[in-house]
Amino acid sequence: MWPRLRKSCRTWSIVLSITLLIGILVVWSWKKREDENSRNDYVSLRLLNNQRDYIDHKGVHVVVGHYIGDSVDPMKAPNITKDLINKNMFDPRPFEGKDGNPVLVPAKDFYKMQQLFQINRFNLMASDRIPLNRSLPDVRRKRCIMRYANVGNLPRTSIIIVFHNEAWSTLLRTVYSVINRSPRQLLEEIILVDDNSDRDFLKDTLDEHVKNLKVPTKVLRSRRRIGLVNARLLGANHAKGEVLTFLDAHCECTVGWLEPLLEAVAKNKTRVVSPVIDIINDDTFSYTRSFELHWGAFNWDLHFRWLTLNGRLLKERRENIVEPFRTPAMAGGLFSMNRDYFFELGSYDDQMKIWGGENLELSFRVWQCGGSVEIAPCSHVGHLFRKSSPYTFPGGVGEILYGNLARVALVWMDEWAEFYFKFNAEAARLRDKQPIRARLELRKKLQCKNFEWYLDNVWPEHFFPKDDRFFGRVS
Ligand SMILES: [Mn+2]
What we know:
Elements lengths: L1 H45 L5 E4 L5 E4 L17 H5 L23 H11 L3 H6 L12 H6 L9 E7 L4 H13 L6 E9 L8 H8 L5 E6 L4 H12 L4 E5 L3 E3 L4 H10 L3 E10 L6 E2 L5 E5 L5 E5 L2 H9 L5 E2 L8 E4 H6 L13 H11 L3 E13 L12 H16 L3 H8 L1 H6 L6 H9 L5 H8 L17
The structure holds manganese (II) ion.
């Protein structure tokens, strides 16, 4: 009897250990899958909305975001009336959107929510539930906090925010985030430039509201639609700060965002510096920290693209994750630049209309004429990314965007302009309509380098044709 018991004991212990082993394996694989899932979640969060990513034919990871969608006049959307558009429905609840968390609109309001979405092409109802001074997470790395803890005297900046029919809540949350999360002594003023909005609440109500802010804030207004470039010029012409900081009208700054930008510009006034642009979700207004190891560039159509850094640069960045790094191009919405340098360098091309292409124009001009375009990885600002544009483009989106891009190509890209026009018939059609003499004279006066120098030195990894690269069919 005893030996039999011992035998069954042995069997049982074998069964038990196998079960335990299987259990451990199951838990391990489940945990692994969960980790992968959360990583995937992170990637898909980063790429929400109008962002898309893919690996191109050369194996470069490409993120597509922040570009032009189909533009529809909100007045033409169903059930949208003038009264509705003119109504300020800002109705904050104390904890909604706290710490950058998503807003959950009650199910009973879904129909209304969808209706209001059409007005600004983001979830206006969600935005209107979030207080103007909502908290956001401190997304900085520890090394960033230490790096900028004692930066000493920095120059003061004017914050310039252009808006056209922006929602009250997004516009003022931008302003409040600047005030709440910048050292007061670094802010000279805030300048809001109204590019001919027609919403009632953006008029006297706004003027009255900004009078009570802790930082001197003024509203400049254009009586006709002048577009982003000329509205920014209007703001810059009135600015008193040593540094100009441009922001879109639907941003939220996080703590410590300003110091890295101002320090870089203070060290060398030819540096033009952008923050890392984090993502505010257009549906829930949740805040997602973005990836720091991207840089800005463009494709053959001159559309701005975020690219992940490749081998050499990635290694450099990993070794130094706090200092600003150079980028071929900037996204354009958010950056700091020394005011004198801005004007010395020819400010903006004032022949550019409404929106689009001005970021590449400024990037090429800065690089080719002796400056640098950089991203400060310790500076994080959230931007509301949308799937489509809520703006009207008088004259048509194509006419405006491709007209602007034709100017960029004609003034700055030398023989690569021909390459661009070959692939972009719409821009080619508009090329002869562009008065560019003043900009070519500027390029000559500033003794700027040519586009080949730019490709060779600023973006050696570019995918444009050169003597050493062949395109098309080899037969
Ligand atoms: Mn924007």
